[in-house]
Amino acid sequence: MTTATPQKKVVVFDYGFGNVRSAERALARVGADVEITRDYDRAMNADGLLVPGVGAFSACMDGLRQARGEWIIDRRLSGGRPVMGICVGMQILFARGIEHGVETEGLDEWPGTVGPLKAPVVPHMGWNTVEAPAGSELFAGVDDDARFYFVHSYAVREWELEVTNPAMRAPQVTWATHGEPFVAAVENGALWATQFHPEKSGDAGAQLLTNWIETL
Predict the structure, then answer these.
(1) What domain count does the chain have?
(2) Closest Cα partner for 179 from 129, 124, 114?
(3) What is the side-by-side order of every strand in the sheet holding 102-105?
(4) Theoretical Cys-Cys bridge with 90: which of 66, 85, 127, 135, CB 3.0 to 4.6 Å?
(5) What is the domain range of residue 54?
(6) Beta strands 83-86 and 191-194: pairing type?
């Protein structure tokens, strides 16, 4: 496992719905200068912004809006400044979430719907492998059979974004399977996200965070 270059400033966005301390420890482990805050200016000016998420889609969106998180994410991405979402922090980047029949608008950075995972056992809790695309920066240096830690009952089962302009690079989508295939990670320019928890995924997760830090 490599260590990221020190001095990269990363803000873990604290909007009340994420394992911020676990994320802080994992990022510090790979050499980042980490701060937990919801301060607008600090979040805007950091080299990287990490958005965790735990709980219901609708509650996370409410918390994010109360902390002006949707503005921060949108403005950072408009300027090409890196953002990474984890677990529900990834799910809220899609257009909508449906839980218990209730539809909630997401940030709509990507089209698509977060819905109930159809599997014999739900939640999907524990270790699982993923299928990353060739040339993935996020999974660089990670063994093909590496396992990552998931805890979720909802997922994106269909990738809906179509890139028709040949001059534009299509997002790289990583898949996993639990009962059915679902989106496990996305790399899309300055916006990266994982459904699993890299901060709880041992050395493989640490390598992913290192890879992200090295792009900042």
Answers:
(1) 1
(2) 124
(3) 102-105, 94-99, 110-116, 154-156
(4) 85
(5) 9-213
(6) parallel
Neighbours of 78 (CB within 10 A): 9
With respect to residue 2, please indicate whether it lies within any of the assigned structural domains: no
Q: Would you name the residues annotated as active-site residues?
A: 87, 197, 199
Whether 3 maps to a domain, the answer reads no
pTM for the model stands at: 0.95
> Which DSSP string corresponds to 42-105?
HHHHSSEEEE---S-HHHHHHHHHHTTHHHHHHHHHHTT--EEEETHHHHTTEEEEEETTEEEE
pLDDT digit string (tens) for 31-46? 999 999 999 999 999 9
- Within-domain flag for 1: no
How far is the CA of 53 from the CAs of 18, 112, 151, in angstroms?
4, 18, 11
CATH number, domain with residue 123: 3.40.50.880
